[in-house]
Design brief:
single chain, 158 residues, mainly alpha, two-stranded antiparallel sheet
């Protein structure tokens, strides 16, 4: 399957890969959450080429994850996370949790603490009905309203 065709797959895990399927996009978002808003700030933090950075920023704007606007102070433009962009934060925290567990042999390089109590922030999967914490063994993919015609849930959910 070609990369561009992923947007047509009726799967809410596969479709976002069209936006997030490369390391640069997630790293741009990581830095946006840390407060970087200017093109040059992203470029110097990432060491990415100007054309590649512009391409990724344009894609994030196209999908309404970032918005580009004039800065409140100064004559430059800046990139700001939208509500849709802020909703990506739990994804980054889930990746961070996995990285801390499996790729940080000396312990987490950064602690993400709750400003109000100093506890640590973590991403957790839970049931919306009973609140129980879940793992992959507890979840069963079932056909949803967005699945088309004769497609099997196994074709898109695994």
């Amino acid at each position: 399957m070609r990369y561009e065709e992923l947007a047509d797959v009726p799967c809410s895990i596969t479709r976002p890969l069209v936006i997030f399927g490369d390391r640069w996009t997630l790293l741009i978002l990581k830095f946006a959450f840390s407060g970087i808003r200017r093109f040059n700030g992203f470029q110097s933090s990432l060491g990415i080429s100007r054309s590649r950075l512009q391409d990724r920023l344009d894609r994030l704007i196209e999908h309404e994850i970032l918005v580009k606007r004039k800065a409140e102070v100064g004559a430059h433009e800046e990139y700001r996370l939208t509500r849709k962009g802020h909703d990506i934060y739990p994804i980054l925290m889930a990746i961070r949790d996995w990285g801390d567990t499996y790729m940080a042999p000396d312990g987490p390089p950064v602690r993400y603490t709750h400003e109000g109590c100093a506890g640590e922030a973590h991403s957790r999967l839970g049931c919306d009905a009973c609140g129980e914490e879940l793992t992959a063994r507890d979840v069963v993919p079932e056909v949803g309203p967005g699945l088309l015609g004769d497609q099997s849930v196994n074709q898109v959910a695994t």
